[in-house]
Amino acid sequence: MNKELNDICEECKNEDISVSQNLIKYGYKICNSCNISKTIFPV
Question: Measured in whole angstroms, how far is the alpha carbon of residue 20 from the centre of its chain?
């Protein structure tokens, strides 16, 4: 379980506190900046 909560984004591989928050909210490990870019430019 500790391996899942390491605050490292799956997209950009940077460490950010928002990764664990987004994991709880949305169910995937992604930081806020990648989340916004995916929302604006979905690919």
Answer: 7
- DSSP letter for each residue of 10-34: TTT--B-THHHHHHHHHSS---HHH
10-40 CB burial, b ≥16 within 10 A, e <16: eeeeeebebbeebbeeeeebbbeebbeeeee
Region label for 42, one of left (φ > 0), alpha (ψ between -120 and 50) or beta (otherwise) = beta
pLDDT digits (tens, 9 = 90+) for 1-43: 556 678 999 999 999 999 999 999 989 899 999 999 999 998 7
Number of independent structural domains in the chain: 1
